[in-house]
Specification:
The protein is an all-alpha fold and 84 residues long. The protein has helices at 12-18, 37-73, 76-83.
Length: 84
């Protein structure tokens, strides 16, 4: 008896490209499943702390901008009087 063909790749490339070969969808957030639990918990606290620091920094910048805008509104005569 003759050997039978066990596998053929005929037409497979055409079938794959018919609908286009797409990259896998990337998720917005990686899953924490299987992650070392103490590390995952610490990560949560770290993110919360950095967010808090960013908010404080933003508030300080807004205050500085207000002070600068108020200083620019003071007439030059008043500034000279303040120096003396």
């Amino acid at each position: 008896m003759t050997k039978r063909r066990n596998h053929s790749n005929h037409n497979q490339n055409r079938k794959h490209h018919r609908n286009g070969i797409k990259k896998p969808k990337r998720q917005r957030h990686r899953t924490k499943k299987g992650m070392y639990l103490p590390f995952a918990k610490n990560l949560k606290f770290v993110r919360k702390g950095t967010l808090k620091a960013k908010m404080e920094k933003k508030k300080n910048q807004e205050k500085e901008m207000e002070v600068k805008s108020q200083k620019s509104k003071i007439p030059k005569n008043d500034i000279q009087n303040l120096k003396e």
